[in-house]
Design a protein that fits this description.
The longest helix has 12 residues. This protein starts with a helix and ends with a helix. It has 3 helices and 6 strands, in the order αβββββαβα. The strands form 2 sheets. The protein has a 4-stranded mixed sheet with strand order 1-4-5-6, with helices on both faces. α1 packs across α3. The relative contact order is 0.23. The chain has 116 residues and is an alpha+beta fold.
Length: 116
């Protein structure tokens, strides 16, 4: 079975003639000052601050369809992958705002999302 990462790469390649598409990371991350640690012999972050990135449920791939500039959101799943509730809420909200949005387990499903 293909990994989600492999499927993402296939989808990005398949839709790239029709879309400007980007891999996105949702959730939170940390920022701080980079300093060299003598103890660890490498750079470390100090004065950490949590930063919220994209909202929970934000799709793995997002971009625009080149023909008309319509927003595109694709949640990528393995063959046996299941969509989480927050991902489904996000996709529904995007569809309600006239974006092209859906779940793709393959490049064929992704192409159907952008051309349906």
């Amino acid at each position: 079975m293909k990994s989600e990462h492999e499927i993402q790469k296939e989808i990005m390649l398949a839709v790239s003639p029709d879309c400007c598409i980007f891999r996105t990371n949702a959730g939170q991350f940390w920022q701080g000052k980079v300093v060299y640690s003598q103890e660890f012999k490498q750079n470390v972050l100090i004065n950490l601050k949590r930063v919220d990135g994209l909202p929970q449920g934000y799709s793995d791939l997002s971009g625009v369809r080149k023909s008309d500039g319509k927003a595109v959101f694709i949640e990528v799943k393995r063959e046996d992958g299941k969509v989480r509730a927050e991902q489904e809420r996000f996709l529904n909200a995007m569809r309600a705002n006239h974006a092209l949005a859906g779940v793709a387990h393959s490049k064929e499903e992704a192409l159907r999302i952008i051309w349906t």
